[in-house]
Specification:
Structural class: alpha+beta
Radius of gyration: 22 Å
Shape: globular
CATH superfamily of the largest domain: Pseudouridine synthase
Number of helices: 7
Number of domains: 3
Helix content: 10-25%
CATH architecture of the largest domain: 2-Layer Sandwich
Length: 284
């Protein structure tokens, strides 16, 4: 099921008028997909910009045009001599701040066209390498007989796990592609908090909307990693009119969660003069 198909099915279940997902998963991928309804769609961009955690299995010895198992094979090389120590050494080059060349089979656009559409038409266009950060890259397992590598990756937005798999294969001199990909975490949301489509449907059938509404979380959950700022009613009134305001004990910079009497009212940004200005407000 595609990310959009999932969104549309859950939107119907919740009988929501407005809904959005927070970044498509690759067709091959499974795992965490936060969905936003109503006013919560205003915070979806902050989830798009959030860090992600993945588990993946890489097949060494075979390179594909999509860098995953669904693509066409473009080269095969012997990987029988690769050792766990070789993999560990190669992985060191993918930790920290790195440059990645986005794959042609991606949703990035070139002159208004998604790259994957151009790729399917047999066209390849020049792409610019982009900086991304890999905070953690852990070798979970190496199977020499099958030439597979299991990894857990915690990374910044815009990181392509397929590109890591392809580049790792090239670093090892044998090629590689993604066999399996699962998103374990997206921003503040982890796999343990997820509910399956099947369970949602069953609960809706049994208990109606009330049964599934229990899974809905406050909009501020999506930006729980941002520092909270509590505003007095009068100050909040000025801010909701679009004015920057002065509040005690503000962070020095960055984005913050804004509250008026414990009610989440939106996202603010700290200005150079120490005031907080509205960036994305919820409706009253």
């Amino acid at each position: 099921m595609s990310s959009n198909a999932c969104l549309q099915q859950v939107k119907r279940l919740f009988e929501a008028e407005k809904a959005g997902h927070t970044g498509s998963l690759d067709p091959l991928a499974t795992g965490v997909l936060p969905l936003c309804f109503g006013e919560a769609t205003k915070v979806s961009q902050f989830l798009l910009d959030s860090d992600k955690r993945y588990r993946t299995r890489v097949q060494l010895g075979v390179r594909t045009d999509t860098a995953d198992v669904e693509g066409a094979v473009i080269s095969e090389r012997d990987a029988s001599g690769i050792t766990r120590a070789d993999v560990e050494a190669a992985l060191e080059g993918f930790r920290g701040e790195i440059e990645q060349l986005p794959p042609m089979y991606s949703a990035l656009k070139h002159q208004g066209q998604p790259l994957y559409k151009l790729a399917r038409a047999g066209r390849e266009v020049e792409r610019q390498a982009r900086p991304v950060t890999v905070y953690e890259l852990t070798l979970l397992d190496f199977d020499a007989s099958a030439a597979t590598v299991d990894l857990e990756i915690y990374c910044s937005k815009g990181t392509y796990v397929r590109t890591i798999a392809d580049d790792l294969g090239e670093a090892l001199g044998c090629g590689g592609h993604v066999l399996m990909l699962r998103r374990l975490q997206a921003g503040a949301f982890a796999e343990s908090q997820c509910v399956t489509m099947e369970r949602l449907q069953a609960l809706k059938d049994e208990g109606g909307l009330a049964a599934i509404d229990a899974f809905l979380q406050g909009c501020d959950t999506a930006v729980a990693t941002l520092p909270p700022v509590s505003l007095p009613v009068e100050t909040a009134g000025f801010l909701k009119q679009g004015q920057a305001v002065m509040v005690r004990h503000l962070p020095l910079s960055g984005l913050v969660r804004l509250y008026e009497e414990n009610e989440f009212i939106g996202i603010g940004t700290i200005l150079e003069d120490g005031r907080v200005a509205p960036k994305r407000l919820m409706c009253n």
